[in-house]
Write a structure and sequence with these properties.
One of its GO terms (molecular function) is IMP cyclohydrolase activity. It catalyses: IMP + H2O = 5-formamido-1-(5-phospho-D-ribosyl)imidazole-4-carboxamide. This is IMP cyclohydrolase. One of its GO terms (biological process) is 'de novo' IMP biosynthetic process. It is built from 3 helices and 13 strands. By secondary structure, it is α+β, with helices and mostly antiparallel strands.
Amino acid sequence: MYVGRFVVVGPEVGAYRVSSRSFPNRKLTAREDALTVGPTDDAPETDNPYVSYNCLRVVDTPTGETAAFGNGSHVDPIAEKLELGYPARDALAESLLALDYEKDDYNTPRIAATIGDDGEAMIGTVRKDALLVETVEEPTLVATYEKNAPESFEFEADSAEAAASEAFNCEFEHAVCAAGIARTDDGFETALENGN
């Protein structure tokens, strides 16, 4: 089954995976404060605005660190609102609503999740017909296609590296790369999987 890009989040761990039929020549790169999706060196040039973006950021908030991750440019305003002290629910809802679903041929939903260092996790999506933001008590997935409403999902990862690997190797078709995030006693750890 092809579900497109997806996020999965539990109270302690999460992941984001790029799955693509149209733009498979992409990879994740670790930057100082973010994991970024971008084209590989051999990728054909494109002016598509949805190909490159920060997909995961860990930011300092007034109450501690929080991780934000998702499938597009909305990750940055979510992270910025968290830094300003917005509750995670409001940061997700306002950013998803403001940027709205992607105006491509498929009306692709925007998806995102947050994990706070207090153990609170949230997941959200904005589609052409709905804005959904939910608190997460167990591993939950939302994808751009087929599974575009949050649903319970079996996810066993207990570290960032395991989360990236498990997301990359999920049964869904056309895996390109994956990012993992986990809350630890020393803060958040991140990992990436480019399938090499």
